[in-house]
Design brief:
The complex is a heterodimer.
Chain A (H helix, E strand, L loop, with lengths): L6 E12 L2 E13 L4 E5 L6 H9 L8 E9 L2 E2 L5 H7 L4 E4 L3 H4 L6 H12 L5 H14 L5 H5 L8 H13 L5 E5 L7 H18 L2 E6 L2 H7 L2 E6 L2 E7 H6 L4 H8 L24 E2 L5
Parallel strand pairs in A: 3-8, 3-9, 6-7, 7-8, 10-11
Antiparallel strand pairs in A: 1-2, 1-4, 4-5, 9-10
Helix pairs in contact in A: 4-5, 5-7, 7-8
Chain B lengths: L10 H33 L4 H6 L5 H10 L6 H13 L13 H36 L4 H15 L2 H15 L22 H7 L3 H38 L2 H8 L4 H38 L5 H10 L3 H29 L1 H8 L2
Classes of the chains: A alpha/beta, B mainly alpha.
């Protein structure tokens, strides 16, 4: 492929400086996302998936105790070569984000319409109120909201969680970003609502050709959504492959444990998994058929 | 400008009814305060008639005075008579100044209100921005500077600042006058009793400047601890707000950092701060006493302490009532502002 990758992460390391020295939490991550590709980063809490998304977003670099090394290239430009304000310029325009709990991420003291206008200003600072409202109503319609006007006049606390999630998805995609970071989207919602909103998100992303970095601990959700999967454990990528290949023949012990951790409808209870196992530290496995 | 409510048509009406409810509650409180202070003033040891007439007055004279003040009636009857007079706007005679208490209040209250209002404005207009700057640059040098200043400001009472400011800005470097409300050489007709308003009404800008010049130092001394308090409160509320996901979202969408500070962190933090600032503001009335003494300010606080020491019954009750009323009015205003700022309160009231 001649066009640059949307996201190209090479040997990414993150350490936090504290009074006794530094603690490394990411030990050299490699990850690639091509244009219009949906890639999932899967791991348990504390494995480093969320901090990875904050580094791509460029906010982790502004944390004073954080030391980020390695390469994070967005469409060919290395983020570490950019200044803090240049990184900010990418956010909300070319890189966008969906949060875990939409109801608390949407500011409760502003109406949804005002928030949309603020987001639209990132792309077009001179956007008028009427124009912003028209465009917001249009995209809300695309996420199956029947009465956009009522939603635009509401505060987030007046809407249901599912409604807020749709709003969040619409807000994240209204500026047609090149890369969407979805950090455990809808984990705070109940399962049926989560499934509905993820379908809406997939449709919209496909239509716009947006690349997605999907961060989750839920392999079931990831299976429906992602083209490729990276499994992360303790700050290291342990296995990588196309979704089908990885689900059909998981090779790394940690991936197997993660897969068996999904409770089944047929019963049998929650499987018993060791919290730590020397097997989990086995070397990285890359499925060969992946480009 | 967007309408206050889009959801329910009766919404602005509901703010009004809510306000009326609060007003009613405040009146009840005021009646309670009047009873309390009326009885307390009469329980304090010492015969007010004897104190007023002095040690050389005869028993007969004292008795005559007690009769005139209705002090020989049962205390319930006394209270009834007092309320009756109050309805006619009569607070009785002051034994201290030998004038109607109402006249004294009208004379002294504007001076104190002027002082307290300016001090309160300084508290809000200096304290809130200082706190906001501190939270915006948390952990960096502007934050540390503001924290040191605000800690210093709250850790010493107003009269210490008053003495310090007089020494530095009036004695060592005579930039400001030390006493009074306006330069003695200026003759001015009294209209409202508020110097700043009276001078402007008379079109005398030189007098206005002189009044302001006299006002700044005492007001600043009075407001300093409030400024520190407001800054610290705003800072901690804003930092708590910064931790919330809504701010992280604003940062993730690349909203400008100053805009995030102003709109997304400051506005929600203002809601809890306002309530405390309202109380601090009302407390300025009490703190004003020593500041008024130091700057020879002819205000109500100084008058109030004078009459208490003289056991001047009518004047004590009148002064306390006025101060309570000011306190209650301030709280009403704060309540109103909070419900305007917080859509949750506004809308939940409307949807009832």
């Amino acid at each position: 492929m001649s066009e640059p990758l949307t996201l190209d992460i090479k040997d990414l390391r993150l350490a936090f400086k504290n009074w006794s020295g530094t603690t490394e939490v990411l030990h050299g991550i490699d990850l690639k996302i091509a244009q219009s590709e949906r890639v999932a980063l899967v791991g348990e809490s504390g494995s480093g998936k969320s901090v990875t998304s904050r580094i791509v977003l460029g906010t982790m670099q502004d944390v004073r105790t954080a030391r980020v090394t390695g390469q994070v290239a967005f469409e060919g430009t290395d983020l570490s070569a950019l200044t803090s304000s240049d990184r900010r310029a990418l956010r909300g325009r070319d890189i966008s984000m969906i949060f875990q709990d939409p109801s608390s991420a949407l500011n409760p003291v502003f109406r949804i319409g005002e928030l949309f206008q603020e987001v639209l200003k990132r792309r077009d600072p001179k956007v008028t109120k009427a124009e912003a409202r028209k465009r917001a109503a249009k995209i809300l319609h695309e996420v199956s909201i029947e009465d956009p006007d009522r939603v635009l006049d509401s505060y987030s606390f007046q809407l249901s969680g599912g409604m807020n999630q749709r709003v969040m998805i619409a807000m994240a995609l209204i500026n047609k970003p090149r890369l969407l970071l979805a950090d455990e989207p809808g984990t705070a919602l109940d399962v049926t609502v989560q499934a509905q909103t993820l379908t809406l998100m997939r449709d919209l992303v496909e239509q716009q050709g947006t690349s997605v970095l999907f961060i989750s601990h839920n392999l079931g959700v990831v299976r429906e959504f992602a083209d490729r999967i990276y499994v992360i454990y303790q700050g290291r990528i342990v296995e990588h492959g196309a979704t089908k290949a990885l689900f059909d023949a998981p090779k790394h012990p940690y991936t197997r444990a993660l897969l068996s951790a999904i409770p089944r409808l047929t019963g049998g209870g929650v499987p018993d998994i060791a919290e730590r196992s020397p097997d989990f530290d086995a070397p990285f496995i890359d499925h060969a058929e992946v480009r | 400008m967007a309408p206050i409510c889009t959801f329910t048509e009766g919404c602005s009406l509901s703010i009004f009814t809510r306000f009326l409810g609060r007003l009613g509650a405040s009146l009840v409180v005021l009646i309670g305060v009047s009873m309390l202070i009326f009885f307390i003033a009469r329980i304090i040891p010492g015969d007010p008639a004897r104190i007023a007439l002095g040690p050389r007055a005869t028993e007969a004279q004292v008795d005559q005075m007690r009769e005139a003040l209705n002090l020989n009636e049962p205390i319930i009857v006394q209270y009834g008579l007092f309320i009756g007079d109050l309805m006619r706007g009569d607070l009785g005679m002051s034994l201290y100044s030998n004038r109607p208490v109402m006249t004294d209040l009208v004379e002294y209250l504007p001076a104190t209100l002027e002082l307290v209002l300016l001090a309160g404005s300084m508290m809000v207009m200096i304290g809130l921005p200082l706190g906001a700057i501190s939270a915006r640059y948390r952990g960096r040098w502007p934050d540390n500077l503001v924290r040191v200043i605000s800690l210093l400001a709250v850790s010493a009472p107003a009269f210490v600042w008053a003495v310090g400011l007089v020494l530095v800005f009036a004695y060592f470097t005579p930039l400001f006058p030390i006493t009074g409300r306006i330069s003695d050489t200026l003759e001015l007709e009294r209209i409202t009793g508020f110097m700043l308003i009276d001078t402007l009404a008379a079109g005398r800008f030189d007098a206005f400047a002189s009044a302001l010049h006299h006002l700044i130092l005492p007001a600043f001394a009075l407001s300093l601890s409030g400024i520190g308090q407001a800054a610290r409160l705003t800072r901690s509320n804003m930092i708590a707000t910064y931790e919330q996901p809504a701010i992280e979202m604003a940062q993730a969408y690349g909203f400008p950092e100053n805009r995030i500070a102003r709109r997304y962190a400051f506005k929600p933090s203002l809601i809890p701060s306002l309530t405390i600032i309202g109380l601090d503001f009302a407390a300025l009335l009490g703190n004003a006493f020593l500041v008024e003494v130091i700057f020879a300010w002819p205000g109500l606080s100084r008058y109030g302490v004078g009459v208490i020491l003289q056991k001047d019954l009518n004047a004590i009750v009148g002064t306390v009532l006025i101060i309570s009323a000011t306190f209650l009015i301030t709280n009403l205003i704060v309540d109103f502002l909070v419900s305007v700022l917080n859509p949750r309160i506004r809308l939940s009231e409307g949807n009832k």
